[in-house]
Amino acid sequence: MQPHSSQVSSFSGPNGMREVNFSCKSKSSLVWIWFAGWFLIFAFNTVAAPNQDSMVKTWDVDDGLPESSISDVAQTPDGFLWVSTLNSGVSRFDGVRFVNFDLPFAAKFPSHGVRRLFVDASGVLWLNGFGNYLASLRHGEFHLEPPSPVVITWLVSSASNPVVFSTKEGQLLAHAADSSTTFGWKSIPAPGAAQYNRFFADALGNFWYRRADGQVARLVNGRDELMALKSGAAKFSVITGDSAGRIAVTNTEGLFVWEHGGFQDQTPKKFDGNFLPRGLTSDGQGGWWLEVNGRLRRCRNGKWIAESIGRLEQKRTWSRIRFEQPDGEGGLWLAYVDGGVIHLGAAGALSALTTKDGLPSNRVRTMMQDREGNVWATFERGGLARIRPRLFQSVGSRGGLADSVATSVCEDATAPSGSAPSAAR
User: From CA 113, how far away is CA 115, in angstroms rounded?
Assistant: First the structure.
């Protein structure tokens, strides 16, 4: 384990990752090194479950973490992963080792743990401690921010100043551009909001939320406006937003997206019975994943384009989802309170990961996807887990081979283009 410190130093190599260079004098040596490398990858904490599309690798105290209870994970622009713990500050991970940091101001608070981590559009790392403080990492040093006490729930907006967070109390906390407010921070009330309310920023910098009474409100320059459909309906089941600043709402009348100064009906025309929505989130590609009438389907521009069939068999409900995140290709990652992790492909293919597949626990605390497409999940008393696509698919007797032992493999001249090679016994 690395010694604790309060200042941040950098490692060599691009993106903060360590470089290892070696040379080989023969192709056979290179082949053996290649196979040996893959053996080591599989041997240390990596689990590839049968018939799964993903592999899981875990890190815990024996791998350099200060403790096994991990509260959050985030990636900064230099490529480093930052990991927060329940009792032991934060750690920086370069893909090889962890460097653990005691926050210089932690002694002022009853807890040394860090609750949440966020990275804004300018690359600043923000920390919300269990001592209910807000801090930032700027230019290699940790700074305690003035607003305290505060419990941060989400980073709502940072594409343009100010940086805006939502709080446990159902309000917004904004870093003010002017100096007229106390220490540069101001609280923005959100009338009617409940505790832990979600907020979404639109393309104009306004903030949308669903009130406790089911109505949807928009905050414009600090003033709240109640929003309604053309039909007059003002109660909604779900509200969400996407990275482009589009706002979508749904109720028993259908799915509506705010565009051109009004709600536009984007309800798919084909659905069974009444329209009974339960969940809604962006697919990251201009469309939406929508749970309606017990079915989870993907739609775009008023048309269904995919459906997850396997989810019905697993009896998973939207209410048990703790985190959802687009995978960058139209699919969706879902982390459940007590059901592990699910990946929905863009076409609806479902892949579920639980403790049977290598997760240290089925109770996922937080989850994020890094710039390389790896998904990182945190666990209380379970450490840190990375989920990535499997590079190899095994084929055995269950896949049609006459024997589980194959001695060679080749492709004949009649094999269709793009087909898998045939195996010879």
Answer: 7
